[in-house]
Amino acid sequence: xxxxxxxxxxxxxxxxxxxxxxxxxxxxxxxxxxxxxxxxxxxxxxxxxxxxxxxxxxxxxxxxxxxxxxxxxxxxxxxxxxxxxxxxxxxxxxxxxxxxxxxxxxxxxxxxxxxxxxxxxxxxxxxxxxxxxxxxxxxxxxxxxxxxxxxxxxxxxxxxxxxxxxxxxxxxxxxxxxxxxxxxxxxxxxxxxxxxxxxxxxxxxxxxxxxxxxxxxxxxxxxxxxxxxxxxxxxxxxxxxxxxxxxxxxxxxxxxxxxxxxxxxxxxxxxxxxxxxxxxxxxxxxxxxxxxxxxxxxxxxxxxxxxxxxxxxxxxxxxxxxxxxxxxxxxxxxxxxxxxxxxxxxxxxxxxxxxxxxxxxxxxxxxxxxxxxxxxxxxxxxxxxxxxxxxxxxxxxxxxxxxxxxxxxxxxxxxxxxxxxxxxxxxxxxxxxxxxxxxxxxxxxxxxxxxxxxxxxxxxxxxxxxxxxxxxxxxxxxxxxxxxxxxxxxxxxxxxxxxxxxxxxxxxxxxxxxxxxxxxxxxxxxxxxxxxxxxxxxxxxxxxxxxxxxxxx
Amino acid sequence: xxxxxxxxxxxxxxxxxxxxxxxxxxxxxxxxxxxxxxxxxxxxxxxxxxxxxxxxxxxxxxxxxxxxxxxxxxxxxxxxxxxxxxxxxxxxxxxxxxxxxxxxxxxxxxxxxxxxxxxxxxxxxxxxxxxxxxxxxxxxxxxxxxxxxxxxxxxxxxxxxxxxxxxxxxxxxxxxxxxxxxxxxxxxxxxxxxxxxxxxxxx
Lengths: 553, 203
Hints:
Chain A is an alpha+beta fold and 553 residues long. Chain A is 41% helix and 14% strand.
């Protein structure tokens, strides 16, 4: 049986993309698989009794070494902010390519804590900073120093000791450009070095909390239980900075979504599902309930989604257990069709993610396809005709062409870059100034504009001729030729309408990172947790691949 | 040191700020990034050009032909470069393309380099007395390494170099003969047994 890939006009809608969940394709999970055989080491741990100082952690295989260099600093409570406007953080980190020399550490000590206003070199690969969850960190220090383990209820509510507020890579602030390292096999997957940084930061947070507790009360202090550590992740606060990324990297976006869609298609095409595979799938679905019931958020928007998800997953479990036989042919196809009919988008995508769990043979090759050589598709084939361009737009952007951009509410917002922090922002064009400096992120509006312009062109004009008179549409002409080859490269929705929920764009990206427990704090930023339940570095070699569904929090 | 990614982003934004469209600005970002990667002074010349642009006029050439003469003001290297990229499929059929008077020709050069990659042919460019070989956007070969690139070029000649060897048949044969010294002369028994495949395929 041949199953078609799902229609981009359905999948690339923001409400659907904003319902994506982590899966085996997610970058933090593929990072753990790739680096499980590497040697992990804590090379330096030079903290004072309050936990301030430097530390270095590394992964090594043969002659390749990646080192996380950590700087923990004392800051005042009033200086602690997760917003991008902050200038000081509890800790700052960089991932160094190789073993840092003492000169490197000296140089980095001066630059890394400054973050965006510091300068890194081609020897550094990623950069980040993090703030303590002061309430949790202090509670854990207090408990351990008294010889007790911390209150699991409190830990469960938060899920981490530290949260990062930005992770930078790919040439930002002088970091190494991607082209310098792109041929390394071990990082042939998006954001792998960013994932490594976050993973090693997580270990640093455990070591730091143990260290501080020990010095607080050397005689009585105990170490944080490893099982508790394992169930703590790293938090992350994410604002709008992430949203333009998925618009600005169309072929990369396509490759992420296409991998997911191909995985689903192949799983639905499995004629006979083996017992062990159906059992693993059911086991993961059931155990994952804990992830839903421990998903805390004050966001009413997200609470409604979680409630619907829980209800539908329970309904699904009931269906699988009482009305379904995995012995039928194409069992996963049946399941998928049932989900489409009976579940909300959040639940459909949740179960789709879990369907991948038994199928390493399908997923592993797809992971290798999730990067993109973007420059290869940059040039516009300007010898082609406007008729061909029209055809592409009519085929690939059919739902976008239905949007009426004469209505105010459909172009209410505009994206801009703030002068203060050079970060993307979204504002109401009728209330705020600055819309004349709008960023090219209103793809739906501009594609429609392009289409309307093309309607008045001769069918046999070349794109070169068209562009010589319509330079302002060049960016969307380029995109149209990209989407011709990459059907999932474009959000099939309006990114400037009154009703846009920007966190849908953030969530799409974060789900591919492997984030859990999306906690929107407004429609423009959210908190998440990464690596919660993940194996500790010492357990990496033989870790349980389904760890994500087996957290105790 | 600025990373190429920083260079590309800053150039794109600066180009938009000077009045180019986003799509054109993306092209400029890509091209200047490439110049800097090759060690040529892209940022420096782009800066100068954008400063000049505030006080001087430059001519936009949208349709390139065999001979192109700027009327009074020099050609804008960016619009010229983009036109060259967009028209590459027809331009590569011309034997020689001549331009008179281009401002900041190094900026035009970066588009020529990309055009060389698209057409799959090396491009030979002569800017007044200076000769440059654009090698499929893999590198730019020129005598400019330690010299300032001129701000204007009066006579520019562009030729597509047909894909052909850089060496004579005799030079090749001489080298190949040397390479043959790594081969083993086959005895009868080696001929029978060493190939792996059967001697006849008629079975």
